[in-house]
Amino acid sequence: MAWLAAPLTFRGMNAIALLGAGTMGTALGRRLLATGHRLTVWNRTPGRTRPLVEAGARAAATPAEAVRDADVVITMLTDATAVRETLFGADAAACALRPGTHLVEMSTIGPHAVGALAARLPPDVPLVDAPVGGSAGAAEAGRLVVLAGGAEEAVDRVAPVLATLGTIRRCGGSGRGAAMKLVLNTALVTAVTAVADALAVADAVGVDRRTACEALANGPLGGAVARATTTEAAFAVALAAKDARLALDALSDVPAPVLRAAASVLAAAPRPDADIATLADARTVGVAPGDKEQS
């Protein structure tokens, strides 16, 4: 896997359609507008496109309308079902894609879903799977880690766009970016739930949570403590639960007891729309150096 961080020359590929204007989609859109791209945006709930329209984007009524003149189409949606319906359902994008348009799938849907999408796209529409590490703040600042999978030529063509969002990590062929995202998110959700367990033990034995977090921050869970105590990231428990299910589906019969336990914690969490940091309920303890944004 190779890293690509050097500035790249744009080759006329700056008309972008963004399908999905949730928290991360809106952050991506703001960054794309700030770096000089012409942006058309579509969202299932039209009102959510308003912030991007006010920032200079054009809103489209349907996915097909959004992609009609695009050089690059970016999907940032909740799950594989939403991506499939947006691309292939009523008024869908796939039927309006021009030959040579590049589709960049940035949702977290797993490698199998990426393969199924690639099989249904027109042969002259290359697909790059490029999920990201980082939250909305990192997206707006251009500090994401972009996990790019796909044919080398296709990744080369969209690299100037992706480089405006952060550092590109080339993961291999089609679906490899999506696969790497499952690896990273498995580490994330299991580590944050491990912090939650450690703090539960701290409570049980009478160790102050701030003291416990400071000690944990200097050990092997340091990165997880930073994520569990930050107030700067937004990765909903429900989305983390979805990603954990994707990883478990990939494992099939492999035991993976830690991931299975984390998935159960996520599924039972009382606030599915809250950030995963709420699993540990430690964001008020103030352990700060090296805070990271990850999703």
Structural descriptors:
single chain; 295 residues; Rossmann fold; N-(1-d-carboxylethyl)-l-norvaline Dehydrogenase, domain 2; 4-stranded mixed beta sheet; 12 helices; 45% helix; 14% strand; disordered N terminus; disordered C terminus
Task: For the record, give the distance between the C-alpha atoms at the N and C termini, rounded to a whole number.
Answer: 20 Å
Order of helices and strands: EEHEHEHEHEHEEHEHEHHHHH
Task: Name the overall outline.
Answer: globular
Strand order of the largest sheet: 4-3-2-5-6-7
Oligomer: single chain
Largest sheet: 6 strands, parallel
Number of domains: 2
Task: Tell me the name of the CATH class of the largest domain.
Answer: Alpha Beta
- Per DSSP E runs of 2 or more residues, the count of β-strands stands at 10
Q: Give average pLDDT, whole number.
A: 91
Short description:
The protein has 295 residues and is an alpha/beta fold.
